[in-house]
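[Help] Beginner question about ligand-bound structures

Sorry if this is basic. My supervisor gave me a protein sequence and a SMILES string for zinc ion and asked me to "get the holo structure". I don't really know what that means in practice or what format the answer should be in. Inputs are pasted below exactly as I got them.
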Amino acid sequence: MDFVWSPWRYHYIRANADGVLSPGGCVFCHAPAVDDPSSTLVVARESLAYVILNLYPYTSGHLMIVPYAHVSTILELDAETLSEMMMLVQRSQRALDATYAPDGYNIGMNIGKAAGAGIANHVHLHVVPRWAGDANFMSVIGETRVVPEEMAVTYEKLVAAFAAE
Ligand SMILES: [Zn+2]
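Answer (accepted):
No worries, everyone starts somewhere. Holo just means with the ligand present. The predicted complex, written as structure tokens, is below.
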């Protein structure tokens, strides 16, 4: 899958190569521990889970809800963590509604590499805003996605939206 325009991608690849994002090998364990959340794109935190922008979004505003616990399946999460993750789904949908007014959402998990999980050893929940017609010919035929907004802009908008709730 190629991206037509992704100006932040170089910085991410550079930071990852420098070990800034994942010194211990797990981006999702490292991201909430960083002092400057804008560098890891964490947009909201709760006590057991947090919300982070996907660095390779399917659409603008593609969020992930991640427990602090480093576990590979939801079977290993306790009731409090699961409850907080679903509460963060609600907060994410409100923030995205207020910011982008999408037509719909895909909300779900890919458990295991066989199911398409990019980071299979730390479970996470995707919240993907959708618009009628967003799955256009380019992604279907050309193996190419057009991401219409720069990541830093998305980050600033969503931090403000979560804070405004
Ligand atoms: Zn982890």
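A couple of things worth pointing out: Residues 2-163 form a domain with the HIT family, subunit A fold (CATH 3.30.428.10). The beta strands are 2-3, 42-45, 49-53, 63-67, 104-108, 125-130, 144-145. Feel free to follow up in the thread.
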